[in-house]
């Protein structure tokens, strides 16, 4: 078994509240791993710690063998949706992705147009993101997470705001990405998503991972 993410005895506090309580887990490469739990159970904080957006007070997180916060500030090969994706409302979906792509300069126009098609958005549309429905914003968030072809995807409630057809589209996309060898961490309230997609399921409750 080849693991790509290892979380070892991680503790995260906000003032006197312990949000992650000695969490230890490893995620095998090339699988979809589900994390379930109520709001406030610690799922989002765990995802932020793995991405390097927050640093735990105790414990170690390794992504592809590199320690987050010491060897790397933020692991390079991760695409993520955590909470509502923040986009510039007065620009089109394409332009928003173009601005983000310019940061790392790994992809160009063609890849951006292709990824918009992949998630079911019109790549030629000039509609501003501020006029997007919740489902369209969510599709754009997924496009942003996958556009640079990362090995690991961390998706916090990726089906939020999608209609039934959208949910089916994104489920099919995630299974296709898994078939390409990607590792996906998925937090969802929807038991059907978890049952349809996940190879492993872990429950989080009050900062403790079952």
UniProtKB/TrEMBL annotation:
InterPro entries: AAA+_ATPase, ABC_transporter-like_ATP-bd, ABC_transporter-like_CS, P-loop_NTPase
Domain ABC transporter: 5-210
Domain of life assignment: Bacteria
GO molecular function: ATP binding; ATP hydrolysis activity
Keywords associated with the record: ATP-binding, Nucleotide-binding, Transport
Residue ranges of the TM segments: none
Keyword check for ATP-binding: yes
Family listed: Belongs to the ABC transporter superfamily.
Protein name (Swiss-Prot/TrEMBL): ATP-binding cassette domain-containing protein
Organism (species): Hominenteromicrobium mulieris
Lineage, opening ranks: Bacteria, Bacillati, Bacillota, Clostridia, Eubacteriales
């Amino acid at each position: 078994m080849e693991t790509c993410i290892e979380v070892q005895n991680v503790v995260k506090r906000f003032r006197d509240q312990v949000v992650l309580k000695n969490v230890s887990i490893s995620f095998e490469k090339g699988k979809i791993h589900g994390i379930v739990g109520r709001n406030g159970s610690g799922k989002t904080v765990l995802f932020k710690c793995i991405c390097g957006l927050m640093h735990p007070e105790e414990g170690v997180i390794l992504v592809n063998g590199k320690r987050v916060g010491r060897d790397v500030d933020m692991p390079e090969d991760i695409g993520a949706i955590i909470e509502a994706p923040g986009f510039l409302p007065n620009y089109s979906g394409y332009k928003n992705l173009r601005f983000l792509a310019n940061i790392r300069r790994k992809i160009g126009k063609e890849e951006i147009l292709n990824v918009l098609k992949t998630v079911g958005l019109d790549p030629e549309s000039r509609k501003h993101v501020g006029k997007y429905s919740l489902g369209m914003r969510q599709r754009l968030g997924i496009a942003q997470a996958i556009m640079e072809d990362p090995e690991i995807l961390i998706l916090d409630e990726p089906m939020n705001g999608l209609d039934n057809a959208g949910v089916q589209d994104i489920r099919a996309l995630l299974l296709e990405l898994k078939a390409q060898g990607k590792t996906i961490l998925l937090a969802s309230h929807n038991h059907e998503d978890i049952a349809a997609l996940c190879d492993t399921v872990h429950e989080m409750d009050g900062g403790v991972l079952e």
